[in-house]
Amino acid sequence: MDDDDSAADDDDSATVDDDDDSSRECPEGEVEDCNGNCGPEEWIGDFFCDDGAYLWDDIPIVFDCDEFNRDDGDCEPRQDVPCGDGLVPDCNGYCAPQEWIGDSTCDDGQYLFDGVPIDFNCADGAWDGGDCDDGMVCDRPDVVVFSVSGHDISDSNDLNEEYLYERGAVSQVANALPAGTDVMLLPYADELENSRGEGDTIETYGFLQLQSDLEFVSQNWGGLCSAPPAVIIIAHSHGVVWSHTAVHMLPGLYVDVLVDLDGQSDGWERPYWGLVGDHWAHELQAFADDYGPSWPFSPWDAANAAQWGYQDVEDVVPWNVGLNLEVASDPSVLDMVGKVGFVLTDRDPNSRTDGSTTGIYREEFSGLSHSEVSYDDTAALNWVAEEIYFHFAP
Q1: 143-392: which CATH architecture?
Q2: What would the mean pLDDT of 288-303 be, rounded to a whole number?
Q3: Which of 4, 233, 336, 345 has its CA 20 to 30 A from that of 21?
């Protein structure tokens, strides 16, 4: 069951009057929370801390109290998210500078920040980015590059194909890494599930596979290895919606570089394919209804991912991303499909969940269309490659 992701309302009228002694009877499937408001019983212990950040019937629901065992453990340890500019929760939920991770000093509680001992020496903290020796040495690549293509407008009747690798964008990113870097390339298409061809072989990989692979890297290489691989995600158009959604859903995964090539959620709710419609909101909602995953925000319009206001998910960068490179195309340049010309461009600059722009860099490229920014050896990809080169330079 996924909680309503709307930000908590500060209006005191939304809570039960403490002077009202009348008992409240909740509908079936709901229980009185810590404040006497009715909320879904299945929110208790659903891996989301219900401390008033989520609404039910427009009322903030709080299960973060002793009566409910701190939301059945969902609120233990207490994590102040967002911590603020440049800060992330440590192994115990205390906010500390993100730059302390992987700075060649083992932060295992011996150093203080704001008077509190900071500990990144755990699986969730990736053993302080390899600074501590408690993790195991694993056979894994140095860098994993995930690429997520967008809607394939060349033939709207077929399944979307992976194209970032074919256009050379992925290779240009990989070649920007230092010589001798062991790189694994994993491509995905603008689909919810994997698509299969003759002989039941997988032709393209979709979002669910992307999430599974990212989770594997986080839990097996990131959580158990003393020196986990660096993670780069490059996505284009609707692929940026998928990549941001996956990163939001995996707060334990650290993404070194998130590359957004003209991210778009236009057509996300449209029930038919058309030129840009993908009906993915319908697909995600149906999947959630059938299998019950907990989405961190509503799949409709891929929005409400920010804690400070209504923002599409492709424009919101969570704090488990180190560097975000955002590319925007020229809104005056048309893309052509046959005789039909259209314009798509990322008009809204990215921000963190709290509205800040720490670690986010945006460039707008004159003369390049929505499709053209996804090809290698363009001004857009040259800028991305240069930034990645300097980010990983020894």
Answers
A1: 3-Layer(aba) Sandwich (3.40)
A2: 53
A3: 4
